[in-house]
Amino acid sequence: MDQLRVALVQQASALEPEANRRLLAELTPTDADLVVFPEAFARDFGEAGSDVSAHAEPLDGPFATEVARLAAERRTTIVAGMFEPGADPGRPFNTLVVRGGAEAAYRKIHLYDSFGYRESDRLTAGPLEPTVVDVQGWRVGLMTCYDLRFPELARALVDRGAEVLVVPAAWVAGPRKVEHWRTLLRARAIENTVFVAAAGQPGPRYSGHSLVVDPLGDVLAEAGDDDQALSVTLERAVLDEARRTNPSLANRRL
């Protein structure tokens, strides 16, 4: 397809999983090819350092099942964050579940051991397997939050054909954090000549500012701090022109 209709849902997840499943139904549109919810949407992280293992669900559990049902009902592909049991019962995976026109599970590779947090104390890092799915003829690469700070993952996704990078996040608020978020999203788009679509949880705890960036770094849409939905149509002609204008992928020597 020459176009991809993308919806970003910037919405806070609650501590009650049932409430978040209801939000999925309320907020999934009927006119998008790809719908992106934030990281940890099945159940919020809770207080810093909280044990989330009791809220981990298998990929055929209530949350992923509801994601699949809604994707089928609304003829779309949905990406949303959840916690998934791993080999260590006390340290689940931070997982993006993809259901609908594509089906996948991406387990966050880079855990947030930074800015005073220790995500690895409570979660298990995923395998080093960059994940790319096909959505309506577009190649979509998956990243989660802190993964954004590691350009080698974005490049690995592009080497696997990614034309769009999707970044669900719960980007913790704080000094410089919005500036970092916007700068890194635009950098990943520019250096890889790809679209970037990032859906974050809103303030006050998180940074909000969900963004869609085109392959030359122009911001196509941006949310503020509060609950908000964005809808953008990506154009393949824009991607092709960007890669002709800036053939940096073809010019690589390392």
Automatic annotation (TrEMBL):
The keyword Hydrolase applies. The keyword Hydrolase applies. InterPro entries: C-N_Hydrolase, C-N_Hydrolase_sf, UPF0012_CS. PROSITE patterns: CN_HYDROLASE, UPF0012. Keywords: Hydrolase. Residues 4-236 form the CN hydrolase domain. GO terms for molecular function: hydrolase activity. Belongs to the carbon-nitrogen hydrolase superfamily. NIT1/NIT2 family. This is Putative amidohydrolase. It comes from Nocardioides ginsengisegetis.
